[in-house]
Specification:
seven-stranded mixed β-sheet; about 30% strand; globular; five-stranded parallel β-sheet
């Protein structure tokens, strides 16, 4: 398997020395810089967004300060809005449904490191995919950790740290996040 194939499969991989991953990462950074500092029109921003993301529906807006590792591993549905300073570390697939909102300075992190210190020190990394359903709202400064799945109609309170998966129709909040309300 290539390092990219290992990365996407959630296996240990070495990304910093792999020419393909370095090239893909640099390309994503260049596109993020265009979005953040390019003084683009709305039409130009949409074009760059579609070059950056793996898949996206209609009406997709990435606010200033958006950053990601690769972009190509991110899928968002229609009517998606990411406010200022959102970070999505997409070493594994990030799938976000339609009608989703992400508030300022939220983070969605598929990337993680081995717990074993020798493996971690060696530079090997891994990741776990994240799935966020339709009609979700992620509050400001919230963090979605590797491997999490959120159902449809989930609201994540500001500042929450989501360490596990949650079903549809709930409000979650806290560190670690827990269900604070059930929605109809």
């Amino acid at each position: 398997m290539t390092e990219r194939e290992k990365m996407l499969a959630g296996e240990l991989y070495c990304g910093h020395n792999d020419p393909e991953l370095v090239r893909l990462h640099r390309h994503a950074i260049e596109l993020c810089e265009k979005l953040n500092f390019g003084g683009l029109s709305d039409e130009e921003r949409d074009k760059v967004t579609r070059q950056l993301l793996g898949k996206c529906g209609q009406k997709v807006v990435l606010g200033r300060g958006f950053w990601c590792d690769y972009g190509s591993n991110i899928e968002v549905g229609e009517n998606f809005y990411a406010n200022y300073d959102v970070v999505i570390l997409d070493v594994c697939k990030v799938k976000i449904g339609k009608n989703c909102l992400i508030a300022p300075q939220a983070g969605i992190y598929t990337a993680c490191h081995p717990l074993d210190e020798e493996t971690r020190i060696s530079g090997l990394e891994l990741g776990k995919p994240i799935t966020i359903g339709d009609n979700c709202w992620i509050g400001g400064h919230a963090v979605i950790n590797p491997g999490v799945t959120l159902g449809d109609n989930v609201v994540v309170g500001s500042g929450s740290v989501v360490t596990k998966s949650f079903p549809s129709n709930v409000v979650i909040a806290g560190n670690p996040a827990r269900i604070v309300k059930y929605l109809k």
